Amino acid sequence: MKQWNLFLKILLCVLLSVCIVLVAVDITARNTVRETPARVETTDSPVQELDYADKVAEILKIIDTYYVDDYSADQLGDYLAEATIASMGDRWSYYISAEEYDSYVEQSNNAYVGIGVTIEEDEETGLLRIVSVTHNSPAELAGLQIDDRIAAVEGESVTELGMKGTQQRVRGEEGTDVTITIERDGTRSDVTITRQVIETEVVVYELLESGDGYIKINNFDTHCARDTIAAIEDLMGQGAKALIFDLRFNPGGYKHELVEVLDYLLPEGPLFRSVDYQGREEVDYSEASYLDVPMAVLVNEDSYSAAEFFAAALQEYDAAVVVGAQTCGKANYQQTFRLSDGSAIAISTGHYQTPNGVTLAGVGVTPDIPVEVDQETYLAIYYETLEKAEDAQLQAAITALAEN
After folding, report:
1. How confident is the model at residue 51 (pLDDT cuts 50, 70, 90)?
2. Counting Cβ atoms within 10 Å, is residue 103 exposed (0-12), middle (13-18) or buried (19+)?
3. pLDDT at residue 327, as a whole number
């Protein structure tokens, strides 16, 4: 009898173990997101290395044959192009869709057709807040102000359009009208504005109380050299005793714009070196005439490319003191190639070097006077809401020039 009871206990344990395993398998199956196919389609040929073009073609063939829903061929093309550029592992190369190409060109030209406002999303209201209004722009002439909220464009809500959609609707052909619904102090009103060509403000400058000329260069795209040299000459005419160039958040731009400014500032010698994809080196040189005045350059971690090489050149010539935070370290330059469907790719086709042949890749420019700021101050500098008296990096530059 005891043996029979022992046998029953062993049998019960075995049955419980099987049940537990079955339950575990069932839980795993229920938590699997995909359906288990009845069979897996394979080709008769053995596994082989595929050329990337053949691989994409094979994937597309499978999608076209078996995919159950519709898909956009245009969107697929954009994703494939983006993935192709991303696979290179170069953070400086990028893809530009056909829809984005015109805006890309406008940005590089520092000019666009629109009304002259900069907007950002307002998380509280869902509307778009105006953060800046270009001087003498159609928006300013129509009475639009900073902190106004854009609620609709041509009667369509910005919450439906989104940021990108709103920008596309506001922009258009020069001389045409656009009606914008503005919310101010809780009241909404429609404003009709005529679109015009807006030149982006490349350079902002002023004579500081210290007697130093302050020049903020927003980028090195079209008109940078023209406007920077004009600002320098105006400030020197006002009696500036020194110059401070603010290149914080400057994303870079065209080499020829950079070289023209450096040629104006620096004595005879090499200004800039580049080596292209074929190993060909090109050196740009400065003429003998130069500006003999104390200078400082403000940089931060968001000073890129031409902005970094501007600071590096002045630093190597001992022509300026560099103040701020370590720069980004971008040393590749890009060329833009237009594709047949109207899109484009910008890929790195060469490397830049400083006048002394130093690469900044992954290193950047090390300031002579390091001055770090906290996140709140960083954002205030970006949004240009920080008072100059509270700007530790600017004040450090002023002090350095006074002691020079």
Report:
1. confident
2. middle
3. 98
Return the closest-CA partner of residue 369 out of 324, 303, 339. Answer: 324
Which three-class secondary structure state does DSSP give residue 272?
strand
DSSP code at position 1: -
Among residues 295, 241, 238, the alpha carbon closest in space to that of 264 is found at 295
Q: Where does residue 171 rank: exposed (0-12), middle (13-18), buried (19+ CB within 10 A)? A: middle
- Write the DSSP symbol of residue 88: T
Q: For residue 54, how many C-alpha atoms fall within 13 Å in the half-sphere facing its CB?
A: 4
Sole residue written with tokens 């619904």: 181
What is the DSSP code (8-state) at residue 31?
A: T
At 75, which amino acid appears?
Answer: Q
User: Burial level of 92, CB count in 10 A (0-12/13-18/19+)?
Assistant: middle
CA dist 232 → 243, 257, 323 (Å): 8, 15, 20
Q: Are 399 and 298 in contact (CB under 8 A)?
A: no
Q: Convert the pLDDT of each residue in 347-391 to its tens digit.
A: 999 999 999 999 999 999 999 999 999 999 999 999 888 999 999
Name the nearest CA neighbour of 116 among 132, 105, 101, 104: 132
